[in-house]
Amino acid sequence: MMNSWYWKHMEYFPYGHETTKDDINNLLAILLHAITDQLTSMTSTGVYSTNELERMLNVARHMKNSPPSDHTVCSVARMLNVFAHTRFLTYHGERAARLNSDESVHGSNRHTRTLLIKTLGPVLWNAPSVHLRALEKIWVDSTMAHQPWALFIERLKSEWQEFILYSTVILNANGAFLAIPSVDTGPDQRTAAQVASYISIVASVGSILAGLLLVRQYRVKPKDTVEEAAAYLHAKDHPRLGVETLAIVYSLPYALLVWAMVSFLTAFSFQCFITKDRPAIYVTSVGWFIVGFFIVWCIYFCWDENPLSWRHKFTNLLKHQWENAREKNPEWVKRLVDALASVSIKTWIPGGSRERGAAASLAAGTTVTDERGSERELEAQTQQHTHEMTEV
């Protein structure tokens, strides 16, 4: 800290002081190391981007060859002050030094999740948890670097603008859907499809409003400097909730957009299935089943593999219970698997097939004499397996 104050004093009062060649060489070495750290690490503790560091390196090289002056002293002192203060914040030279920007020197930086985000997380499609983890990597020990914050906000603004566009599309789709004559049955009666479409419209408008407010907030007050960003996060950091409320607000455009899409699909489903045309219902059901299967499959494989997520806990619980059952009663598990396998085979083999019925009887060690004998043998085997499953 004293080193940082020394260079700050040199920056404020450069008159009558001189910087030596060793000071400038030290600055060049610091800049080269900072560039290397930014290029080789995604969690660098540096406060400047690679482009900014390269420009600073170019300036330092010019100052090395320029004659001594008060302006040179001020410039060198300012850059050395920034890097000295960064070393102080990262506990440079200490046993518990911060080597990565997302690591806390006090142990875990993960804030204990409160009931607020645990309740609203599933309602908002787990979007607050994603933003909360990103904020916790930026806001570490009440300190932050401007570069990760700037990238985070730029990515958020781009996403919010896209969500506004998508919400507008959903809003237009609902308007066209409500204009269908078969949907609007009259002024005195509202169908389920209409109600679901109304909910979709409300959610779309909410997503558009939330996105516009957030985009305007960070355009009018962009928090360009690290001091402004740190003061903003410090003001939003609740003693108990942490930055959970900020993460929830950031997730509103996305969550409301998803609810708008789900409500619109619900309205469309009501219109498809509330009809007397059975072939249309069958074809639509098959299409919905195929699309739903792929969507669930995509969610399952693309979902974040967080060890603390409910899906991870539920999967581990099922595996643990199955392993305990196999250890405590292996015979019962074996009989259960055999019984389920036999039921599955009987379900898929047609009962009226003479050839398959005869093959099953021969495999069981019986003699097939005629069609009636084969049917009686199959019936006896079915009763035996049913009795085994009852015992299980």
Summed up:
The protein is an all-alpha fold and 392 residues long.
Structural summary, described in words:
The protein has 15 helices and no strands. The chain has 392 residues and is mainly alpha-helical. Helix 2 (21-40) packs across helix 4 (70-89) and helix 8 packs antiparallel against helix 10 (244-273). The termini are far apart. The relative contact order is 0.06.
How big is the Rg?
Answer: 34 Å
Question: What is the H-and-E element order?
Answer: HHHHHHHHHHHHHHH
Largest sheet: none
Q: Tally the beta strands.
A: 0
Cα shape: elongated
Low-confidence stretches: 346-372, 385-392
Please bin the fraction of helical residues: over 70%
Q: Report the sheet-strand fraction.
A: under 5%
Gap from first CA to last CA:
73 Å
Structural class: mainly alpha
The DSSP helix count reads: 15
Q: Return the average pLDDT rounded to an integer.
A: 81
